[in-house]
Design goal:
A hairpin with a 4-residue loop joins strand 3 and strand 4. The protein is 29% helix and 19% strand. The chain has three domains: 88 residues, Phosphorylase Kinase, domain 1, CATH 3.30.200; 176 residues, Orthogonal Bundle (Transferase(Phosphotransferase), domain 1), CATH 1.10.510.10; 127 residues, Roll (Nuclear Transport Factor 2, Chain: A), CATH 3.10.450.50. The chain is an alpha+beta fold. The chain is globular and about 60 Å long.
Length: 543
């Protein structure tokens, strides 16, 4: 067993033990090469394994570490490296000082529906990105959801995740995951799928509101919990308020009837923003790929909202006027006189409109108004130059005028809160654009900036900003850091006569405050993640 001070894989100096479980130990460590704090998950060899089984377990851990490293999202704990020490795997991850949702529920009590929606939207965004990459988490639960002091949420422990289609080498009969948050099909022996992650997230949010997961908990009898889960009967939540219908959709016994993670994210963001979450009683999960619903299958997709990650939204929007659909099976056909009544009214209105047009054109001569026609929206389309201009204007206001800069942000970045945004920019002395904004997509702009922090550090960053169109006005709605380098100020010279030797890099505060970039940004670097070069992460400062 390793101890504090040990150097693992010739690179990671252990500083503090963060936790342990049946599969291994998690340490806070210092990456000696990059001079940043990291979390190191040291996997342990399970007792009783044959050499062949032990080698399979090692290969599985290394493979799953590489799978998890494919995921880059602001709301997921990043995997930086996969290595070995004494023949056992190491997963080197982003260090994120935070409390788990499980700890918060015990220490602070249950969440409100609005807070639950805020947390759930961030987790759903990370799961949607994982599902797009072919990764299923398999163990979404309160203990794997981390929340920082400034309300940034990240989901961790993709350690038991599997790539879709990846060949499992686990021993048969081993249950990986937490039964209380399983989807019914998992309890019945079906393989995990993105829809089962959605169910587990719904169960987690249910527990945050009700105090217990949908099927209860029994640490001493997992089989009893599995039996209840397999039955799939969920009692409606009593404290969910505007989240009730969405939770019931996410907890639908039939996987095909659940929303996708992306749809759930949009609906949760709607509730967090004080809007209704429009959900269907039917198959939301099929809404992204199926044609318009026909006989017996009228569905209403979740209302699409601006995507915080800047990813294109492919779900169909809710139409202002419902499209004509065939009458569902078992629904009585409207009486004939009702149809004729509507038809007659339509004819009267049409004749009146035609009469008005004829009167206007015949009596007005050359000066008469032209016939009424449907005019297109006069709003000028947003051009690539408009996007670049908004980005330039945004950085020109910082750091002196964060209030004006805030007006350039869309709902995705405003979710962090104005106070946190302003608090961060008070730690910045100056901003210099080192690489002019350039368009990299229909709604994305890349820019390079140098920040001089008030503590003397210099931070050079390359950002890719996603913009949304708000009635013809572009707003910055997502921020991905493509590259980041931080240069610390030179230490003061030692006092005369001092012969102290330089020690290893001092640990950052472990009080959940992160480093200087932490509060108000919502990015990986500002939560104890240090200098992540080429690691993607949405930044809550909106730049």
């Amino acid at each position: 067993m390793s101890e504090i001070g040990d150097l693992l894989a010739g690179r990671y100096r252990l500083r503090r033990r963060l936790g342990s479980g049946a599969m291994g130990v998690v340490w806070k460590a210092i990456d000696q090469r990059l001079q940043r704090p990291v979390a190191v998950k040291q996997l342990l060899q399970q007792p009783g394994l044959t050499p062949e089984r032990a080698e399979e377990a090692r290969q599985r851990a290394m493979r799953e570490g590489r799978i998890a490293a494919r995921l880059h999202h602001a709301n997921a704990i990043a995997v930086h490296d996969v290595d070995e020490h004494d023949g056992l795997p190491l997963l080197v991850m982003e260090y994120f000082p935070a409390r788990s949702l499980a700890e918060i529920l015990v220490e602070d009590g249950l969440l409100t529906p609005m807070d639950t929606a805020t947390v759930g939207a961030q987790v759903a965004a990370a799961l949607a990105e994982a599902h797009d990459a072919g990764i299923v988490h398999r163990d979404v639960k309160p203990g794997n959801i981390l929340i920082s002091s400034d309300s940034v949420v990240k989901i961790g422990d993709f350690g038991i995740s599997h790539a879709t289609g990846d060949v499992s080498v686990t021993q048969s009969g081993v249950v990986a995951g937490t039964p209380a948050y399983f989807a019914p099909e998992i309890a019945r022996g079906r393989p995990p799928a993105p829809s089962s992650d959605v169910f587990s997230l719904g169960a987690t949010l249910y527990a945050a509101l009700e105090g217990v997961p949908p099927f209860g908990e029994d640490e001493d009898n997992s089989l009893a919990v599995l039996h209840r889960v397999a039955a799939g009967e969920v009692a409606p939540p009593q404290h969910a308020g505007p989240l009730t219908e969405l939770l019931l959709a996410m907890l639908a016994p039939d996987p095909a009837q659940r929303p996708t993670a992306r749809q759930a994210e949009r609906a949760l963001r709607a509730v967090a923003g004080g809007e209704p979450a429009l959900v269907a009683a039917g198959a939301l999960a099929e809404a992204e790929t199926e044609p318009a619903a026909g006989v017996g299958a009228q569905t209403v997709p979740v209302r699409p909202l601006p995507d915080a990650s800047g990813t294109r939204l492919d779900v169909r929007p809710v139409p202002d006027v419902p499209a004509a659909v065939s009458a569902p099976t078992g629904t009585a056909t409207p009486p004939p006189h009702r149809r004729w009544g509507w038809l007659a009214m339509g004819i009267v209105l049409l004749l009146a409109a035609v009469g008005g047009i004829i009167a206007a054109t015949s009596s007005g001569g050359d000066n008469a108004a032209p016939p009424l026609t449907s005019t297109p929206n006069s709003t000028r389309p947003v051009t690539p130059a408009d996007l670049r201009s908004v980005v330039s204007d945004y950085y020109a206001l910082l750091p002196e005028r964060p209030g004006r800069a805030w007006e350039h942000l869309g709902p995705g970045l405003r979710a962090q809160g104005r106070e946190a945004f302003t608090r961060y920019w008070r730690t910045v002395a100056s901003v210099t654009v080192v690489s002019a904004p350039r368009n990299t997509g229909d709604r994305t702009v890349q820019i390079g900036v140098e920040l001089v922090m008030k503590d003397g550090a210099r931070v050079t960053e390359t950002h890719q900003l996603g913009l949304v169109d708000a009635d013809g006005r572009p707003l910055i709605d997502s921020d991905t850091v493509l590259h980041r380098e931080r240069t610390e100020p030179a230490p003061p010279p030692p006092p005369p006569g001092s012969d102290e030797k330089a020690d290893e890099p001092k640990d950052r505060k472990d009080d959940g405050q992160g480093d200087d970039e932490g509060p108000g940004r919502g990015d990986d670097e500002g939560k104890g993640n240090g200098d992540n070069k080429d690691e993607k992460g949405n930044k809550g400062k909106g730049n």
